[in-house]
Amino acid sequence: PLTLLWFRDDLRVTDHEALTAARDDGDVVAIWVREERDAEGRGPRPLGAATRWWAHESLQVLGTELDELGIPLLFAAGTATQIIPEVAADLEADTVRWSRRYAPASRALDEAVARELEARGIASEGSPGSLLVEPWEVEPSSASAYYKVFTPYWNAARQVSVDLPLPAVTAQSLPRDIRDRVERVRRENAHLLAEIDDLELLEAGTGPASTRFTPRSGAGGGAKESSLGEGDPRFPWWEDTIARYWTPGCVGAREAVDRLGERIAGYAEDRDFPGDPEGTSALSPRLRFGEISPRQLLAEVDALGDVGAGDREAWVRQIYWREFAWHLTYHVPDLDWRPMRPEFADFPYEDDPEALAAWQAGRTGIALVDAGMRQLWQTGWMHNRVRMVAASLLSKNLLLPWQLGEQWFWDTLVDADEANNPVSWQWVAGCGADASPFFRVFNPERQRVRFDPDGVYVRQWLEGDAGEGAGGVDAGDDSDGGAVAPIVDLGESRQAALAAYDAMKSAQTSD
Ligand code: FAD
Question: Which segments carry the region annotation Disordered (predicted)?
Answer without folding.
Answer: 207-232
